[in-house]
């Protein structure tokens, strides 16, 4: 079956003066997908979104929406809805008037306006605030009204530029749930810009990880977290322990590494080639490590250490263990008898080769 593409970015380039902000950006967004642009501040994700929206013009490449070339086409001719970081509601208009504004510009008949505004307010679960003004709403309500205003025109594409960043943690979580529910219910193709990895993992069908204007990886949340293509992706997404060393040998899929502090560990090469004596960085996520206090079943890698610090975080306990390879964070589930992990205890940190990521280290 031929996939239907709502958005295509082909070799898109954008510079401001001598600063290249977006460099050879290529992406296909399928109909009904929710895609997140994820990366640190200044990586080019909002600039790319603004080019899709028509607020900026690419310096090179081609942009298509629904198969039609959009280079040079103004924003109001692109059939899209936009939700900004700030709510951008008109303070002198009621909620109903704010939501209806785009329909009035399109000269939609009044009976249809009333019907569509009512329907979209019910979708965002705020029909009871139609007569209120923005100043009478909470931050979460204002952002939901901003989303309603974007949806009421029934766009084929919804663009969201960090819409949750101005909200407190609890509201962010609630509205994140709301956006996911809306996407599942309505099915509008959505592109979501964020620097918050948890938001991207939670909301996205696929994530585009961006660094310095370039795409580092495109993949599902599972692929981005568990199969990072680059060292940047691995370190930007989630938490990880880092160790340094040199390759002793590489046989098949197994790489043997002598850590700088003297211990030897093994890792799955994941199809990459490593030369003997090559300097590498070794990464293991805290939840993939285990603590052995009594000499239990051995895993591929074992480092002797001393528990330095324990922090109870509800669903898990995080232990910092001092080893020959430095301080390592080990995340233990709430069911593992973590009360015995007090500081000062001797312990063995263990993990499997398949849970170890190795990247070539750039010498400074």
Description:
By secondary structure, this protein is of the alpha+beta class. The chain has eight helices and 20 strands. It has helices at residues 45-53, 95-105, 110-123, 139-151, 169-186, 197-203, 221-226, 231-236, and strands at 5-16, 19-30, 34-38, 60-65, 68-69, 80-83, 157-161, 189-194, 206-211, 214-219, 241-251, 254-259, 264-268, 279-284, 290-292, 301-312, 316-323, 326-333, 346-351, 357-360. The strands form four sheets. The chain has a six-stranded mixed sheet with strand order 6-7-8-3-9-10, sandwiched between helices. Strands 13-12-11-14-20 form a five-stranded antiparallel sheet, with no helix packed on it. Strands 15-19-16-17-18 form a five-stranded antiparallel sheet, with no helix packed on it. A hairpin with a 2-residue loop joins strand 9 (206-211) and strand 10 (214-219). The longest helix is centred in the middle third of the chain and has 18 residues, at 169-186. The chain is elongated, with a radius of gyration of 25 Å. The two termini are 49 Å apart.
């Amino acid at each position: 079956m031929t996939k239907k593409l709502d958005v295509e970015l082909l070799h898109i380039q954008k510079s401001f003066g001598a600063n290249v902000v977006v460099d050879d950006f290529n992406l296909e967004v399928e109909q009904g997908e929710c895609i997140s642009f994820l990366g640190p501040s200044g990586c080019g994700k909002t600039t790319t979104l603004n080019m899709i929206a028509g607020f900026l013009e690419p310096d090179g490449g081609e942009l298509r929406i629904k198969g039609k070339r959009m280079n040079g086409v103004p924003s109001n001719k692109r059939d899209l809805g936009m939700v900004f970081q700030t709510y951008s509601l008109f303070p002198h208009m009621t909620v109903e008037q704010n939501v209806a504004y785009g329909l009035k510009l399109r000269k939609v008949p009044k009976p249809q306006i009333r019907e569509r505004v009512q329907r979209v307010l019910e979708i965002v679960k705020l029909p009871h605030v139609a007569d209120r003004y923005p100043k009478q709403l909470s931050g979460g309500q204002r952002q939901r009204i901003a989303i309603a205003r974007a949806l009421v025109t029934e766009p084929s594409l919804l663009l969201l530029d960090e819409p949750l960043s101005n909200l407190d943690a609890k509201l962010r979580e609630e509205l994140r749930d709301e956006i996911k529910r809306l996407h599942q219910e309505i099915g509008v193709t959505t592109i979501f810009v964020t620097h918050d990895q948890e938001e991207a993992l939670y909301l996205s069908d696929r994530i585009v990880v961006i660094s310095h204007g370039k795409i580092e990886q495109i993949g599902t949340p599972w692929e981005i977290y568990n199969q990072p293509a680059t060292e940047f992706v691995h370190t930007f997404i989630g938490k990880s322990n880092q160790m340094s060393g040199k390759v002793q040998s590489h046989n098949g899929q197994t790489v043997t590494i002598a850590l700088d502090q003297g211990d030897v560990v093994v890792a799955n090469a994941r199809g990459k080639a490593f030369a003997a004596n090559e300097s590498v960085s070794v990464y293991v996520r805290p939840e993939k490590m285990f603590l052995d206090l009594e000499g239990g079943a051995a895993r591929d890698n074992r480092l002797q250490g001393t528990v330095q610090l324990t922090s109870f975080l509800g669903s898990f306990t995080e232990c910092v263990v001092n080893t020959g390879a430095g301080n390592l964070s080990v995340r233990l589930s709430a069911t593992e008898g973590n009360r015995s992990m007090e500081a000062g205890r001797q312990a063995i940190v263990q993990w499997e080769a398949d849970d170890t990521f190795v990247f070539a280290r750039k010498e400074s």
